[in-house]
Specification:
This protein is of the alpha/beta class and 602 residues long. It has 18 helices and 14 strands. Strand 7, helix 7 and strand 8 form a beta-alpha-beta unit. Helix 11 packs across helix 15, helix 12 runs antiparallel to helix 15 and helix 13 crosses helix 14. The longest helix has 37 residues.
Length: 602
């Protein structure tokens, strides 16, 4: 209601002489959106200042204010968008930050320090950037009502903590502002460089190809080579813009370091345009004072043009929001009386809804089934059964490479001696290396499952986005629990691998090694009548049938009959032994064989 009422006042004023009050009203609306985190919901009329590094953006803004208050130095000085709201007052000069309510900064050096501190708080102190704006109001009798957004200068090479794609990040941040139809673009370009190579005009051309929203500003006219000028550009004959170009002369670096007064600099600027032969005819349409006046008029007219549609859009959104919260207007009231249990009950309903949605996304089912992509439980299933085996295969050594490593290990362990047998150390070293390869794929699998679970949680709590505090609290609690489970799972996997590494059990039935080979040789020796006490009599498959409840159910086993024992196995490999029965004095009768089957006939 506060926002809509302010816009109603603005609409009434837009038709009379009080039109200049439009800008402060829009500033209030902008502050209200910033405080509730809705900057991107409504496109408010504004002017974005765009330019390359060292194009003179900061000097242009300081000239408009008449004070030094912006960070300066090498590299990127503006690392967060600065929403600068200039407000005309008859007496006094001070600044106010939206993040420091109630505090007036009368010392503009303190304003600079606060901008630097607030920037470092969000981005760090080593040249990082952020798209979260800083809101600054300047009150002064030397300014006109105006709102400007100072954006980071376009850079090519990352420095400090800046990421390798810093150019793309800054470009994306700038496009986020200037791509809005309600935003005017102040393209700042140095006159001592080729206009065709201007970064600011290039970006402006992408979003405003006809030059309707773009205002050109030429800086450093006094630094051009002798015999050259920018007269044709200022006359709008080269790369013409609907709103034209304005030339300014800023203080030089020496003037800034020497603390040259801005008022004295503006007087020198005025003298420069009046005395320069190429710019005399433009003297009344150039300079900082004319730029400030032009921007004030352009922004006021622009606000007046977009205000009706802006008000209509806000009213539509307010109607929509009222319908959404209609059921909650009488929350906590029963029969006109306060019901203290209503709100906790409603909160528990929303928590239960999140729990139910999470369970459905993991277990499957529900009314809304995604037919485009895998998510939730289906994606976790894919991770376990398809991706994880693939990760394991990636870590396995080629057999040829493995044999080569085993050979080197054996030779290194024997040293100068020639060994007759394979040393256990070489075997354990090779096996342990293979066991070690199980850990990284497992950790990767854990990470992917954890990420997918967190995405599921975010989708579930998105349905309660109208309650941001409850949403944030659920996210915080569940994410914390997921991190704890992930840490515990990683520790368990690591411990399991360490257990396997601590002892290699070569006596295990699944181990194919010396013991298994010796056993096979012993059986062969007995079968050949090699003089042992126990002799192999017969081997073969035998079907057994139960006569109990499972009558008719038969199973096949591999039987081995010795002179003193009967053993049967799962298959002919004789590794998985099912039973072993000791017997005495068994002899084979050839007659039974000939009569049709004998002991192994059925």
């Amino acid at each position: 209601y506060y926002i809509t009422n302010n816009l109603s006042k603005a609409c009434k004023m837009s038709g009379n002489v009080g039109m200049e009050a439009l800008i402060p009203i829009v500033n209030k609306v902008q502050d209200a959106f910033t405080q509730v985190g809705m900057n991107s919901v409504i496109d408010l009329p504004q002017i974005a200042v765009v330019g390359g590094q060292s194009a003179g953006k900061s000097s242009v803004l300081e000239n408009c204010v008449g004070k030094d208050f912006l960070p300066r130095g090498t590299g990127i000085c503006t690392r967060r968008p600065l929403i600068l709201q200039l407000n005309f007052v008859e007496k006094g000069e001070w600044g106010e930050f939206l993040h420091a309510k109630g505090k007036k900064f009368t010392d503009f050096d303190e304003i600079r320090k606060e901008i630097e501190a607030e920037t470092d708080r969000m981005t760090g102190s080593n040249k990082g950037i952020s798209d979260i704006p800083i809101n600054l109001r300047i009150f002064s009798p030397h300014v006109l009502n105006l709102t400007l957004i100072d954006l980071p200068g376009i850079t090519k090479v990352p420095i400090g903590d800046q990421p390798p794609d810093i150019e793309h990040q800054i470009r994306g941040m700038i496009m986020q502002f200037i791509s809005k139809p309600s935003c005017l673009i102040l393209a700042v370009t140095p006159a001592n460089s080729d206009l065709a190579n201007s970064d600011a005009l290039k970006l402006a051309k992408e979003v405003d190809p006809e030059g309707i929203r773009t205002i050109g500003v030429l800086t450093k006219l006094d630094l051009m080579d002798d015999g050259t000028d920018s007269r044709d550009i200022l006359d709008n004959k080269v790369l013409p813009l609907r709103r034209g170009y304005i030339g300014v002369v800023n203080r030089s670096q020496r003037d800034i370091e020497g603390k040259k007064d801005i008022k004295a600099a503006q007087a020198a600027e005025r003298k420069y345009f009046l005395t320069h032969p190429s710019y005399r005819h433009l003297a009344e349409r150039a300079g900082t004072a004319f730029l400030q006046k032009t921007l004030n008029q352009q922004l006021t007219n622009h606000i007046r043009e977009v205000l009706p549609s802006l008000r209509s859009k806000l009213e539509q959104q307010m109607t929509s929001m009222e319908s959404e919260v209609k059921e909650f207007k009488n929350l906590g009231m029963t029969g006109g009386r306060e019901d203290k249990s209503a709100r906790p009950r409603m909160m528990m309903q929303m928590v239960n809804r999140v729990t139910h949605d999470f369970e459905q996304m993991i277990e499957g089912g529900g009314n809304a089934v995604d037919t485009k992509t895998l998510s939730g439980g289906a994606k976790i299933n894919t991770i376990f059964h398809f991706r994880f085996p693939g990760y394991l295969n990636e870590g396995r050594l080629d057999e040829k490479e493995l044999r080569k490593e085993i050979g080197f290990a054996i030779r290194n362990i024997h040293g100068v001696r020639s060994g007759l047998f394979t040393p256990d150390a070489a075997f354990e070293m090779t096996v342990k290396r293979q066991i070690d390869t199980l850990c990284p794929p497992s950790m990767k699998c854990i990470q992917q499952v954890s990420t997918e679970l967190h995405e599921v949680i975010m989708k579930c709590i998105d349905k309660i986005k109208n309650y941001p505090r409850l949403q944030a609290e659920i996210d915080n609690l569940v994410s914390g629990y997921l991190r704890e489970c992930e840490t515990f799972c990683r520790e368990q996997i690591q411990q399991l691998v360490e257990v396997e590494l601590s002892y290699i059990n070569t006596n295990h039935d699944d181990f194919i090694g010396f013991n298994s080979t010796a056993k096979d040789e012993s059986v062969k020796d007995v079968a050949a009548g090699g003089g042992g006490e126990s002799q192999l009599i017969k081997k073969g498959w035998l079907s057994t049938s139960n006569v109990g409840l499972t009558k008719g159910l038969s199973r096949e086993y591999w039987f081995v009959l010795y002179t003193d024992a009967l053993a049967w196995f799962k298959d002919e490999s004789e590794r998985d032994q099912k039973y072993y029965l000791t017997i005495d004095g068994v002899k084979m009768k050839e007659e039974e064989e000939e009569e049709g089957g004998g002991i192994f006939g059925h």
